[in-house]
Design brief:
heterotrimer, A alpha/beta (482), B alpha/beta (228), C alpha/beta (241), A: 482 residues, Fumarate Reductase Iron-sulfur Protein, Chain B, domain 2, Rossmann fold, six-stranded parallel β-sheet, four-stranded mixed β-sheet, B: alpha/beta, 38% helix, 22% strand, binds iron/sulfur cluster
Chain lengths: 482, 228, 241
């Protein structure tokens, strides 16, 4: 299957809007997750305090990231884990491959991890003939379909159960059923055989505790526990921003993350893993490898606005709350990270050149900021990136020159009352040709070409006309001296 | 692969970028400074054991867990016997906890009890019996510390997980538990809240996807009968 | 109490009746109202599209003009333009002087309905309107300025009117400035959810405190031939039947 790219966001979005299956699948997302989240939040008294607290923990960590990373790595090593460092995705993939090769391992199980998606680890492994098995139900569905996740918490949200049923018929040869329980049991049955034979388990990390070297991974299904318990070797890929200073800081994040993401007070399982087992006869893997990956993250530290991006705990709440995401789903963003948080981190991770549309794919309504458990001001970040694009800090050449001219003209004319008033008069003259009954209906042909924004507006909406008498004129004649 | 090179490059980048941010930090702080001083952990009233148990039961049941309360080990064995019969369990994975061993010792039946099962054998088990080190009342959560008991897989692989708990192990909050377990940190600590679940297909809840589809807690409260 | 009006360019040019209504309500409440004709635009379109150099020009001009006034407050019939004024200081991250001037202006700038309720302590303007009213929370008023209860209090006290709460009143209408023309299909898909709720509410007028949202909602209502009319809260509060 062709993967969409961020470069064609506008086309992707249009296609998504026309896809009735997709929009059907997305229909319940906002309501279901919205209501569950509301109910879960109501079970803590000090929600706003918790958000503040979480943010200040993240701010503190990021301001001293070098110190906390050092502590984390030292303490994890002391407990028996092996630490690896990767500057970018390519290095991280190479480390994984090397570890597999050294162990002669080909049977790999994976649990859901956005970081591994980010670096396209599966593709890198497949190139060498290794087929890692995704074990999270949603990820497995996506893997069978040869697609990418469209949501950071529920990766297969874009698929209806009918589509999933067909997929299972085709790929695993079961009889068609759209009973969710039957589909789930099928996944359990098939994936168990993979777990039984797996030599290496690969996971992500939700939090890494500097003070103890512990990694915490949250889940509902149990596949992460299996992935990190059964195989002899556990490899965890961890972005360098996942560190928190103290073990007890986890209290705050464990209260925020499940409530924000899935509307649970706690996800079903949390695994807190500190190094490797002490005795050979203990349960669990003999080796734990933690790969600490930068991949563009340290760059985000360079400004307080962009630094916020690193506070993200990947709960997905901003996606669920976003009116744009609700309409078009995740694939249109053409990026591993979709939705509001995707629109701000993708350009920072992969460069703004091919992702210029993403920061503009928002009405700046602020619903994301309102739900974000770590109070990331996503609209502020969007504006920051828009400024980088418009002011050419990153790359001006391909950005619409006509728009730049228009804004240059606007700022010249509209900051001068005489030009501003002249503009009003010209509009009044021009609109005589298009307005009817005090409004402008559908404009097409020549005029829409002449003024594309007017065409884009009036294709669906009537436009108002400039009033015969502006407020400033009314003020002068009727109001000023009353 | 030169790991130390990557490491120093990452640290250099972190320091460089943090330094570049300094001139902007103050202005941003004015708008966004977290109001940290307002944060207080709500002080909860000390709960009696009875209230803790009730709280735990309520929250466990709200996530689909099954709860029974018994007076002692032999009564626990009776309940267990019934359950094993009901589930027609033939192969049962057990942890090495003395409490579990004692209770299983009471059971006179021809099911096979397997301690320290290999992965292959575990996959054949119909039921797993373990203890837990702590429980959290406010969320209905079981807390398993790997250093105390070999229960990581018995609590995970079989389709039914029975956990034997003692009343004194329950605490009210997650925060208390984190402080407790940190004192001698086990290599693996597992929190379990309800049965394995997923909402990955059309956000419809399905139970028992990879872990147990059933979670049963048998709580031994030796003060029970005395009060009755 | 002296008020300097920040009328906004949309109101000035497209719906001057809103400006007139704003003046009427404020005068009826006993305020002295002045209007500085040198004002034009707050620069929000430039700011929101990333043109900060341009936005900075507008901001400086705005600050200079309003600094000259001896008015106690600056009041605007727009949540999003008020919010823009509150963002001015972010444009001067490296300039202490302008930053504090921006902050001083921002501190005395109020959105119209919040000003009535929170400063003037007026919840009943003696208005009268026959029909069913509903309220749309424009995003910037709601989330940047935290204006939620104020307009509702005011609308509930309007004589002869029935106030109905709009389902998902706080969800965006899809306007978003240039977003509405950059991605018109997405914008309208979002808008159509809003329209559906307005129709379900059976309201005669959907009220908001932002000419931009009203232009978006009204443009679609008019295209679809709906009976519901977009109305600015100042128009309702000024109405006396
Ligand atoms: S930005 Fe905030 S709301 Fe969005 S995924 Fe990250 S933590 Fe969650």
């Amino acid at each position: 299957m062709e993967h969409l790219t961020a470069e064609t966001f506008d086309q992707n979005a249009r296609a998504a809007l026309a896809d009735t299956q997709l929009r059907g699948a997305l229909k319940n997302l906002a309501v279901t997750f919205g209501e569950r989240r509301q109910a879960a939040i109501a079970t803590v008294e000090n929600w706003e305090d918790l958000r503040e607290r979480a943010r200040s923990i993240k701010d503190e960590t990021l301001a001293h990231l070098d110190k906390y990373l050092t502590d984390f790595a030292d303490n994890a090593e002391k407990a028996g884990a092996q630490i690896h460092w990767a500057r970018d995705g390519r290095e991280a993939c190479a480390i994984v491959l090397e570890l597999l090769k050294e162990r002669d391992a080909t049977k790999i199980v994976k649990s859901k991890s956005m970081a591994t998606e980010e670096i396209h680890l599966n593709a890198a492994l497949e190139k060498t003939g290794i087929d890692p098995v995704e074990t999270d139900l949603g990820e497995w569905i996506i893997q069978l379909a040869g697609e990418t996740p469209s949501h950071i918490v529920v990766p297969a949200i874009h698929k209806t159960k009918g589509q999933i049923a067909d997929l299972f018929v085709e790929k695993v040869g079961i009889e068609k059923s759209d009973d969710v329980d039957v589909l789930t049991k099928t996944a359990r049955r098939i994936l168990r055989t993979r777990f039984a034979e797996a030599e290496v388990g690969i996971s992500g990390v939700n939090f890494g505790v500097a003070e103890t070297g512990t990694i915490l991974i949250l889940e509902n299904e149990g596949n992460i526990r299996l992935t990190t318990s059964l195989p002899k070797t556990h490899i965890a890929l961890m972005g360098i921003e996942k560190v928190v200073p103290r073990f007890t800081d986890l209290d705050v994040f464990l209260k925020l993350l499940p409530r924000s993401g899935t509307g649970q007070r706690l996800t079903t399982y949390q695994s807190l893993i500190t190094g490797t087992k002490r005795n050979a006869t203990d349960e669990g893997p003999a080796e734990v490898h933690i790969i600490l990956m930068d991949n563009g993250r340290s760059r985000m530290l360079a400004h307080p606005t962009t630094r916020q991006s690193l506070a993200c705990i990947r709960c997905g709440a901003c996606l669920n709350a976003c009116p744009v995401y609700q309409q078009i789903g995740g694939h249109a963003y053409g990026s591993v990270y979709p939705g509001p948080i995707g629109a701000v981190i993708t350009p920072q991770l992969v460069g703004i050149g091919k992702t210029k549309q993403l920061p503009f794919a928002s009405s700046l309504c602020g619903a994301c900021r309102e739900v974000c458990p770590v109070k990331i001001d996503i609209p502020e970040l969007l504006l920051h990136l828009r400024a980088e694009i418009a002011e050419g800090v990153t790359e001006t050449s391909t950005h619409k020159f006509s728009e730049k001219l228009a804004f240059g003209f606007y700022s010249f004319a509209w900051s001068r009352p005489e030009f501003y008033k002249l503009g009003t008069k010209i509009s009044r003259l021009l609109q005589k040709f298009v307005a009817k009954d005090g409004k402008i209906g559908k404009t097409s042909g020549f005029l829409a070409k002449l003024a594309p924004p007017l065409g884009a507006w009036t294709a669906w909406r009537d436009a108002p006309t400039v009033a015969p008498k502006s407020f400033r004129e009314i003020w002068k004649s009727d109001l000023e001296n009353k | 692969m030169n790991n130390s090179e990557a490491k120093s490059a990452i640290f250099a980048s972190i320091r460089q970028n943090l330094a570049a941010s300094l001139p902007f930090d103050a202005a941003h702080h004015a708008h966004h400074a977290p109001k940290d001083s307002t944060f207080t952990t709500p002080v909860l009233p000390e709960l009696s054991t009875e209230n803790l148990i009730e709280n735990f039961r309520k929250n466990l049941e709200s996530v689909g867990g099954n709860f029974s309360i018994v007076y002692d080990e032999s009564e626990a064995a009776e309940i267990l016997l019934m359950m094993i019969g009901e589930k027609k369990a033939r192969k049962i994975a057990v942890s090495d906890s003395p409490l579990v061993e004692k209770i299983v010792g009471f059971l006179k039946m021809d099911a096979e009890f397997i301690e320290n099962a290999s992965a292959d054998r575990l996959f054949e088990c119909d039921l797993g019996i373990t203890g837990a080190q702590w429980a959290i009342a406010e969320t209905g959560t079981l807390v398993l510390e790997s250093e105390s008991e070999r229960h990581r897989l018995a609590s995970l692989v079989p389709p039914v997980h029975v956990c034997i708990l003692e009343a004194g192990q329950i605490r009210q909050t997650l925060g208390e538990i984190l402080e407790l377990v940190q004192q001698s940190l086990s290599r693996t600590i597992t929190f379990i809240t309800g049965a394995s679940r997923t909402s990955d297909i059309e956000l419809t809840l399905a139970i028992g996807v990879h872990g147990p589809g059933e979670l049963i807690v048998i709580l031994i409260d030796k003060t029970e009968e005395a009060e009755n | 109490m002296k008020i300097s009006l920040f009328i906004t360019c949309l109101v000035d040019q497209l719906c001057p009746q809103v400006g007139k209504a704003t003046v009427e309500v404020l005068r009826r409440a006993g305020c002295e109202v002045v209007f500085d004709e040198r004002q034009t635009c707050c620069g929000q379109p430039a700011f929101n599209t990333g043109y900060r150099t341009e936005a900075r020009k507008f901001a400086k001009r705005f600050i200079e003009i309003f600094e000259e006034s001896d008015a106690d407050f600056i009041v605007s019939p727009s949540g999003s333009c008020t919010a823009m004024v509150k963002h001015f200081d972010e444009l001067f991250a490296e300039d202490e002087n302008w930053r504090s001037r921006a902050a001083r202006i921002a501190a005395k700038t109020y959105e119209f309905s919040a000003f009535l309720v929170n400063v003037l302590k007026i919840e009943d303007t003696n208005a009268s309107f026959s029909g069913k009213l509903t309220w749309h929370d424009a995003c910037h008023g709601l989330r940047d300025l935290n204006v939620r209860d104020e307009p509702r209090k005011l609308l509930k006290n309007v004589r002869n009117a029935e106030f109905v709460e709009l389902k998902n009143a706080d969800v965006c209408c899809g306007f978003g400035g240039t977003f509405a023309v950059k991605y018109p299909e997405i914008s309208v898909a979002i808008l159509d959810n809003k329209i559906a709720e307005i129709e379900k509410s059976g309201a005669d007028a959907v009220v908001a405190c932002d000419a931009s949202c009203l232009m978006q909602i009204g443009g679609r209502l008019s295209r679809l031939g709906s009976k519901a009319k977009p109305m600015h809260i100042a128009e309702i509060l000024a109405a006396q039947e």
